[in-house]
């Protein structure tokens, strides 16, 4: 019984993650809501997951493009090599 319950909770957490990114189906969302009515640990997980998603959306973080990232990595590697050769 305990293993089955944990399996259900793992699936619920997976559906919760999908739901946060609009990847879960309506049926999965319904099953998740029913599960959340009874499971306190999954309720806490869902609440924290929602808070994290909202914080990321509010932060308006901008990522570096791949080209700039590669150039920066090359500069870092060359500086590391310079430091290694100076010792």
How does this model look, in words?
The chain is mainly α. It has four helices and no strands. It has helices at residues 2-20, 26-38, 40-59, 66-86. It comes from Neptunitalea chrysea. This is Glycine dehydrogenase.
Low-confidence sequence ranges: none
Number of E-type strands: 0
Strand content range: under 5%
Radius of gyration: 22 Å
* Bulk shape: elongated
- Helix percent reads over 70%
In terms of structural class, how would the helical and strand content be classed? mainly alpha
What is the tally of helical segments?
Answer: 4
Average the pLDDT over all residues and give the rounded result.
83
The topology string of helices and strands comes to HHHH
**Biggest sheet: strands, sense, closure?**
none
Cα(first) to Cα(last) distance is 62 Å
Organism: Neptunitalea chrysea
Protein name: Glycine dehydrogenase
Give a brief rundown of this model.
This is Glycine dehydrogenase. It comes from Neptunitalea chrysea. The model has no long low-confidence stretch (mean pLDDT 83).
Observed structural traits:
single chain; 87 residues; mainly alpha; 4 helices; 84% helix; elongated
Strands, helices and their partners?
Layout: H1 2-20, H2 26-38, H3 40-59, H4 66-86
Helix pairs in contact: 1-2, 1-3, 2-3
């Amino acid at each position: 019984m305990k293993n089955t319950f944990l399996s259900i909770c793992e699936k619920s957490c997976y559906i919760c993650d999908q739901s946060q990114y609009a990847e879960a189906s309506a049926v999965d969302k319904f099953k998740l809501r029913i599960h959340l009515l009874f499971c306190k640990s999954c309720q806490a997980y869902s609440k924290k997951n929602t808070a994290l998603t909202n914080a990321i959306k509010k932060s308006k973080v901008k990522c570096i493009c791949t080209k700039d990232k590669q150039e920066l990595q090359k500069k870092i590697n060359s500086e590391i090599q310079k430091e290694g050769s100076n010792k």
